[in-house]
Write a structure and sequence with these properties.
alpha+beta; 3-stranded antiparallel sheet; two-stranded antiparallel ribbon; 1 helix; 5 strands; about 20% helix; about 20% strand; elongated
């Protein structure tokens, strides 16, 4: 019983070590914290990929922390801001990337 428990523990520790080592060697591809933009402006590093309701994204004060700025892609209420009912989808990236993240 002790041997099986020790073996299982070593496997888990090994897996976690490999997982964290992969994270530590990752390369940051993009960063935008919206702090340098004027409130009300459209973030220049982002592009509209889906025009939902025709609204452009704007930089606003963070509703949860007024010391920060965030990007908002809709002024509609939360349930109406989804891209399938009126919100827009914004993307960013580089032509060399093969995977994109949408906001």
């Amino acid at each position: 019983m002790k041997v099986k428990t020790l073996l299982a523990l070593l496997i888990v520790v090994g897996f976690l070590t490999l997982s964290f080592s992969q994270i530590s060697i990752s390369k940051l591809l993009f960063h935008d914290d919206f702090e340098k933009y004027k409130i009300g402006s459209e973030p220049s590093k982002w592009e509209m990929a889906h025009k939902g309701g025709g609204q452009k994204a704007t930089v606003i004060k963070d509703p949860d922390d007024s010391k920060n700025q965030v990007m908002s892609s809709s002024t509609a209420a939360a349930g109406s801001a989804r891209h399938d009912v009126g919100g827009s989808i914004y993307v960013t990236g580089d032509s060399n990337w093969t995977v994109y993240v949408g906001f």
